[in-house]
Amino acid sequence: MPPDDDRRLVALYDAHAPSVWRYVVHLTGDPAGADDIVQETLLRAWRSPRILEQEPESARSWMFTVARNLVIDEVRSARHRHEVRVAELPERGREDGTDALFESLLVEEALAGLDLEHRAVIVHAYYGGCSIAEVARRLGIPEGTVKSRLHYGLRALRLALQEKGVTR
After folding, report:
1. Where is the RNA polymerase sigma factor 70 region 4 type domain (predicted)?
2. Where are the alpha helices (DSSP H) in 77-140?
């Protein structure tokens, strides 16, 4: 766009955009939507160089007509017909925790089916967050025994959960 056209477009915006915006807000009641309509109107003026060369009154009339037609097109659009305006946005959906609760009950049941030695090692290591050395110290058994009981205890736990349909 030549520099002279840039100046004319800026002058067109300065002279007419506020009144076109008020007109669109009057038609729609939507200030944010009015911004979009005014922007599209000015874009169409920029694409139509003859508008930049017209007298200010003719350009103003042209811009009001284009803005009105854009409002009508928006109201007729499928997007507008299917949108439902509400005063407040709905709350975001939240997980209700039912699945997690159900799974924790199944794990608790499966743990209860293990023998006491295996269950104690798994509970200390996984639920207590203890290291192998800490579990060994707390239970008074060697670290190798802790590792062995963890291995076989987890294997038995996996089998019990498979029987309940929780894992593969």
Report:
1. 106-157
2. 78-82, 98-112, 116-122, 132-139
User: Is 92 among the domain residues?
Assistant: no
Give the tens place of pLDDT for each residue, 21-38.
999 999 888 888 889 999
Residue 83 per-residue DSSP state: -
Q: Is 89 part of any domain?
A: no
Q: Three-class SS of residue 11?
A: helix
Q: Looking at the domain assignment, is residue 53 inside a domain?
A: yes
Q: Do 78 and 9 belong to one domain?
A: yes
pTM metric for this prediction: 0.45
Q: Are 20 and 64 in contact (CB under 8 A)?
A: yes
Q: Who's near 34: CB < 8 A, 6+ residues apart?
A: 21, 24, 25, 28
